[in-house]
Input
Amino acid sequence: MLTLPSPSSVWGPHHHLWPPRCHDLLQLAPAACARLARSGPGWLAAALQARPWGLVRQGPRPAGAVPIELQGLGPAQRHADWVEAPQVQACLQPAQLLQRWCAGAARGSAAWPEGLQATGQRLHSVLSTLGLGDAGPTGAWALALASGAPCPADAQAGRSLGLVIRPAALPAPAEAAQWLHTLALAAAPWPLGVTLDSPAGALALAELSRLAQDLCQLHGPVRIGVRDARGEQQLSWAELQARCRPTEQTPA
Output
């Protein structure tokens, strides 16, 4: 299990957030940025200077460290690395980023498309109604909201808003389809890409919801792509349910 070295001196009152979860954003200390830039690709130094943030990713976790993904300022620039607790200055969870969005992080800037502020507020309202409070933007959208950077190029190109949901329980395919339909209406006119961060790993809400179109698939050979620390796996509906089932406690 990961431990936080000297919690009071590293993260102060926020030490309970360590270790961070997949899709959390970590603000990197200057020393960490310098180390990452030295060992990473040539574009990384400029990217970290503009926004010193890393996105926690799925992957093996060396003792006391957390795997992160670093994104460049240009398209298709991604670099996988890791950081330790003393190299992290702050942690922002997806739900906190959604609050920033609703509070006006995307308002009043010509770099953000008109109407995007209202989109964030609609998504927040729908997620609250569905009882999905642990949810928010991820990927390039999360980085832009955390660092105050201009709207991601993906938005200008009409690509999907990235949203991650951490549900208390795995939804059935019919419920997943309802969530997807409702969230898509709230996000319009921007397309929405929704990831479920489940105990079994990360999976696309759209892929799970497609099972609702034919209930026979629940008992057939159809398999769902799930990504965890070991990489991409293909699980059946029964296997996915089993992995997400709470562990029963043995009576004392």
Notes: The radius of gyration is 19 Å. DSSP finds ten helices and eleven strands in the chain.
